Amino acid sequence: MAVVMSILAQNISNEVCIIDANEKLVNGESKDVQQGSLYLRDAVIIGNTDYKASEDSAVCIITAGERQKKGQTRLDLLKTNVKIITQIVPPLVKYSPETILIIVSNPCDILAHVAWKTSQLPLERVFASGTHLDTARFRYFIAKRLGVSASSVQGYVIGEHGDSSVPVWSAVSVGGIRFRDLSKCAGAEGDTDQWHEVHNQVVKAAYEVIAGKGYTNWAIGLTVASLVSMILDNKNEVATVSTLAREREGIENDVFLSLPVVIGANGVTSFIKLQLSGLEQELLCKSAETLNKAMQSLKEKK
Ligand SMILES: NC(=O)C1=CN([C@@H]2O[C@H](COP(=O)(O)OP(=O)(O)OC[C@H]3O[C@@H](n4cnc5c(N)ncnc54)[C@H](O)[C@@H]3O)[C@@H](O)[C@H]2O)C=CC1
Ligand SMILES: CC(=O)C(=O)O
């Protein structure tokens, strides 16, 4: 619902369809938003349990599935949520064969890989929101420490959307100035200003919100809405989303993880080549290995 409200309130689309297995819930949620449509430019809001209602959707966003309980990592949700994804993708694609699929349910990197294989859609049309959210958190935490706007901070978090994510300090800039020229060792050995703490904040961010309210929704809602606007308005903006990373940035594993890519009307259209430091490269390969192990465990469970 946070994705829905972020899309509608920002006029990214004026037509949304919400599908959920829980009929009472989907009726309640869709009616509640419909009754505010006077303030949403008379947007069309459909709620249903039948996938036919979503026919010819330009973008399908999958958020269904179990969420982390206290103490659980995203990877702990794998077994349950793979089953749900493999149920949802075929009917979605049946009714919207030209769609672009964005996977949000966790662990989103692995679920996007499974969704791509299940959907048989072209690779550029299936990706996970991945570290687009971690990147937003990273920019926010740096900006807060420096007392500038988050939009004045450029930088990426890549790899797994989860505990092994990698901050790319070598690519951070503030107001167009390379951060490494301001703080030479930021995030690396000799980091006396403790900038590495910012990445710890990013990794802990979801756990802290979940400890407080039981789930996260507003930041991911806004993050996914921004991806939808890149597609619907063919913006060709650069964002870190999760796609097949094999043979990119030194990754040998057959895994989905986040790298900076260009997103437009056809989905992921090209990759931005990074110039990673030795440490960043090493951490990215470790993140790929973590995801690869989880992916292999799926094959063993079959
Ligand atoms: N990638 C990211 O950054 C984020 C991912 N998430 C993930 O999104 C997922 C959902 O989280 P919440 O919305 O908090 O959970 P929730 O429990 O509020 O919602 C999940 C919904 O999925 C529905 N559902 C379950 N199985 C279904 C099926 N087979 N078909 C149709 N609908 C089905 C349930 O009825 C429920 O309404 C979790 O896996 C969570 O970890 C949440 C926030 C951020
Ligand atoms: C739950 C989750 O993946 C997040 O908020 O980052």
TrEMBL record:
GO terms for cellular component: cytoplasm. The active site is at H161 (proton acceptor). It catalyses: (S)-lactate + NAD(+) = pyruvate + NADH + H(+). InterPro entries: L-lactate/malate_DH (IPR001557), L-lactate_DH (IPR011304), L-lactate_DH_AS (IPR018177), Lactate/malate_DH_C (IPR022383), Lactate/malate_DH_N (IPR001236), Lactate_DH/Glyco_Ohase_4_C (IPR015955), NAD(P)-bd_dom_sf (IPR036291). The keyword NAD applies. Its EC number is 1.1.1.27. Residues 2-127 form the Lactate/malate dehydrogenase N-terminal domain. NAD(+) binds at D20, N81, V104, S105, N106. GO terms for molecular function: L-lactate dehydrogenase (NAD+) activity. PANTHER family: L-2-HYDROXYCARBOXYLATE DEHYDROGENASE (NAD(P)(+)), L-LACTATE DEHYDROGENASE. Belongs to the LDH/MDH superfamily. LDH family. This is L-lactate dehydrogenase. It comes from Ceratitis capitata (Mediterranean fruit fly).
